[in-house]
Amino acid sequence: MGWGAVSAELALWGALAAPIAQALLVLVLPRPPGLRDTLHILFACAGAGCAFYLVVAVAGGEGARMVLARPLPDVDLAFSAEPLGALIAALILGLGAPHAMHTAGMVRATREKAPARLMAFCALAIAAAVAVALSANLFSLFVASQALIVATFPLVAHPGDEDSRRAAGIFLGTLFASSIGLFLPAMVWTYAISGALEFQPGGVFVGGIDAITANVLLTLFVLGLAMTAIPPMHGWLRASTRAPFPGLVSIYALAIFPAGGVGLLKIAAFVFGPALNDAALAARALMVLAGVGMCVAALLALSKQDLRERLAYSCVAQSLAVVIGALLALPAGLFAAALQIVALSCAAATLLMAAGTVAAVTGRVNAADYAGLGRVMPWTFAGFALAAASMIGMPPFSGAWAKLWLITAAAASGLVWAAALVGVAAVLTFAHLGPLAANALAAKAPADAFKRPDGASILLAVPVLVSALATLWLLVLANPLAVFLAPIWTPRP
Amino acid sequence: MFGLFLDWARPHAALIVFAAPLAGAALAVLAPMARLAWLIAAVCAIAAAVVALDFAARGLSGGGGDGAGLFATALVACCAAAALVGAGALLTDWGPRAGRYALALALCVGAGWSGALLAPDLVGVFLAAETAWLASVALVALSGERDRGALNGALGMLGAGGVASALFVLGIGLIGRGVGTLQLAALPAVQIAMPGLAATGVGLVLAALALKAGVAPLHVWVGAAYGRAGGFASLVLGAVGAVGALAALVRVAAFAIPAPAIGAGVAMSLAGLGAASVVVGSLQAIGASNLRRLAAYAGAAQAGAVLISAALGSMAGFAAALVQLFAMAAVAIVLLGGGAALGGVQALHLLNGLGRRAPFTAAAISLGGLSLMGAPLTIGFLGRWRLIEAGVGAGWWWAAGAAIAASLAGVFYCGRLIERLYVRRAAAAFTGGDNPWRLALAPALLAGVGAIGLGLAPDGLLRAAAAAAAQLWDGAP
User: Fold this and answer.
1) B427: contact with A, CB 8 A cutoff
2) pLDDT tens digits along B427-469
3) What's the gap between Cα B425 and its chain centre?
4) Cross-chain Cβ contact A181/B408 below 8 Å
5) Angle between helices A256-266 and A331-362 (to 10 degrees)
């Protein structure tokens, strides 16, 4: 084993362990706040560094795998670095660094009662999402997704009142019920058919699979991954809006949606592969569900005044686009879905951090109260506008390339209606985000904007800008990414 | 010295597993001090557990033996040893005299169920099971010294036990008439002259054992007994009594199901009873407002999953049943042992905020809860996985559905329990204890860690369960 492989393995360990260490240190050393925040930010940056190194190593042809346990015969609890997982891990941990900085700013600005707990569970949610992305087999994916549900539950329950507890119960119940009731049987069934759960390009159903089984399995897997918020398994979404803003960033931008998206992509590419064509009926039905759900979610977002709810539904509309891309059974669809995860995470992180900053500094969380705030918080709202443009799908931001690929792939597979639904959802996204951003930047500034005299601190403003700039990166990286991700749809000879 | 002891014990292993606890019981009653009685009881229980483990390890590495009996005897002996080690801190539940009797009765419960698992014929099973059951009743009745309500529980057990005994005796009679022998090992191979009579007899025997194991809906005695018995009595009842009775039931089923003339009927009855137990037990656990009752009803749901696994009638099914039996024992020790360590604090609303007040007890209960809900990397998940796998393999999709339903219900009631421990704020003054070095908590903590450890590295357990199931099949026609 060469140094390269060893260092890739170290980077894999680092990417998984850094957020866990971050959480533990924050819990163990909650005081003084300066030390706590420094550790929180430093370990987030260390995790991001490991993840970026992992991407470079994988791009250089190196592989890494770590086995933690063998809880079932022939099934390891294992994590490995392959292009898709490494990319999403780098995305989550890369955005995790500005998020850590923003969380430190938020807990100070809002005088949070339990800052260490909030920070720790944000970090644990990120750790679990990274574990989902880097999972080497279905079992590890299942374990990591369960860990993710458990890690995000305290974020929803964080306010501690009766409503939050009830909301957290709904959140936990919906996600667990779909995971255990649908995903688990699908996994055991897959194991019974193929005798293996290991992800591999080309899928695990090497000897083929009959159409009925393929259709039922695909339905169980897709609905079992309720983290994508596919209807009717989206009950957790509204409940999750009870979380504080740093928790919302973790849930929507860094953990649940990216994990759901990458989980679905792994199942489409590494479990089904070409066998996805045998499940065409279920795939079409699920795409209809996702397409209609996408439009309805964007419409619902339009009806919401509370920014947390509006952005939550807006994120659902984006997440369901990932489902459509994954189910197209085309390399272009998988690529579009991967780009969509990147675009969603960057834009959602920016929007939610900006909304958090506004809430902390001005106390405003209603869309109607945003008018003119861009004039007193120009940096924050510059970021907000860039992210909104990406979410809508305006060139040259990330969202545009993702949607372009998605519409092209849908049209290429003869599913013009799917392409049309993606287009309609984009228009509706414009309707609920465009005027909001424009009004914030163009209207007259309110006289009593700040509840804090000094406005937004650097810890609140800089992360918004950093993640907003990340929405531009696909402009230059789309092509290299296509080359980087090619192995996921190219079966090994 | 340890090697010498094993060398001496090996030729008489079965006798020692049964007789050492009984001898210990006699000595404990005669001991002048409660502490000395506990020491004697713990030493005898540990000695029996060590011999049982060695006996099982040797027996399972060979072929053609009574795999289910060997596996389950070791499990029951270990559970009894764990309960008796923990009893050192629970003697204050009784006065000095009653404490000695409690220890002796607990040893008799362990010896009785071990005997039932080693007995070669049905009469032996009956006599040993009756010994264990009557000792359990007396143990619950002893709790009446502090809480008169425990006497109601003991009375309920006595009544239910009487019915069970009548069914058992009737079943033995019918089997004797229908099969011509009461030897368990002969059942799979013998030519059964009157299959209807024999099947009815086996059904009655299994119903009697199910009643004693607390399998729903035959668990009429469970609520009052667990709810009002003291911490130690409920620990012995759940971790030794229920596990022992269920293991005896699985053992009898393991010999009856391979018998061609009666196997199908027995399997169907077991499957029906198992499904009912999963549903009823889960629903009652959801509605439970007391930790001990929750553990008892959750145990009924787990017992249902064990019965369904056994009813599959395949090697994979019996292996799954033994793994789940192990998981059930671990959870019983964790929940009831953790509950015992808390003393009088049993109502669920009093457990709010326990994570801060008693972190070790809360951690132990949480580990048990995670296993109960079938969380990945726990022994509970392994058991459910094995059941689903065996069910899918046999085309029993509903069995897989039952396992998943049990897990979902577990998520509901254990999730709520864990939420109470860590998310809710305590509203009332705490009167329980949480000293991690208290022996009462030691078995619960060890079993909790074991539930996770075996979930992470289950090779040894899976091999043992597979070897036990394979031995049963070697003996089958």
Assistant:
1) no
2) 666 655 555 556 667 888 888 888 888 888 888 899 999 898 8
3) 34
4) yes
5) 170
C-beta atoms of A184 and B407 within 8 A: yes
Pairing outcome for strands A75-81 and A64-72: antiparallel
Asked whether residue B441 is domain-assigned, the answer is yes
pLDDT at site B476: 45
CB contact set of B326 (below 8 Å; sequence gap of 6+)? B75, B379, B383, B454, B461, B465
Backbone φ, ψ for residue B290 (5° rounding): -140, 135
- CA nearest neighbour of A288 among A130, A409, A410, A189: A410
Average pLDDT of span B371-387 = 88
> Do the Cβ atoms of B412 and A173 come within 8 Å?
yes
What interhelical angle do B315-341 and B243-256 show, nearest 10?
A: 170
* A121 reaches B (C-beta below 8 A): no
Taking CA atoms, what residue in A is nearest to B377? A71
For chain B, the maximum distance between any two Cα atoms, rounded to a whole number of angstroms, is 66
Cα–Cα distances (Å) from B320 to B86, B241, B316, B384, B465, in that order, read 29, 21, 6, 8, 8
Q: How far apart are alpha carbons A219 and A237 in whole angstroms?
A: 20
Q: What is the largest CA-CA distance in chain A?
A: 70
Distance separating alpha carbons of residues B94 and B106, to the nearest angstrom: 14
Which among B404, B456, B459 is the nearest to A181, CB-wise?
B404
Does the beta-carbon distance from B415 to A172 stay under 8 Å?
yes
Q: What residue in A sits closest to B416 (Cα-Cα)?
A: A169
Q: Which of A98-102, A104-108, B90-94, B356-360 has the lowest mean pLDDT?
A: B90-94
Mind telling me how many Å the CA of B389 is from chain A's nearest CA? 6
Check A71 against B404: CB less than 8 A apart.
Answer: no
Do the chains contact at B423 and A154, CB–CB below 8 Å? yes
Residue A155: predicted pLDDT = 92
| A1 close contact with B: CB closer than 8 A | no
Instruction: Confirm if A64 and A80 have CB atoms less than 8 A apart.
Output: yes
Specify the amino acid at residue B183: Q
pLDDT for the residue B139: 92
User: What pLDDT score was predicted for residue A31?
Assistant: 86
Is there a domain that residue B52 lies in?
A: yes
What is the C-alpha to C-alpha distance for residues A225 and A72, in angstroms, rounded to an integer? 22
Tell me if B411 and A165 make a contact (CB, 8 A cut-off): no
Answer whether B415 sits within 8 Å of A184, measured CB to CB: no
Contact B82, B239 (CB under 8 A): yes
- Number of domains chain B is built from: 1
Q: Is residue B455 part of a domain?
A: yes
Q: Print the domain residue range for B42.
A: 2-471
Q: Residue B357, CB half-sphere, CA atoms under 13 Å: how many?
A: 20
ipTM reported for the complex, 2 dp: 0.79
B476 occurs within a structural domain:
no
What residues of chain A, 135 to 174, have a C-beta less than 8 Å from chain B?
139, 142-143, 146, 154, 157, 160, 165, 168-169, 172-173
Query: What's residue B78's pLDDT?
Result: 94
Average pLDDT over residues B196-202: 90
Q: List, for chain A, all residue ranges whose pLDDT scores fall below the cut of 70.
A: 1-6, 449, 451-455, 490-493
How far does A71 lie from chain B, in Å, by closest CA? 5
Inter-chain residue contact B382 with A71, CB threshold 8 Å: yes
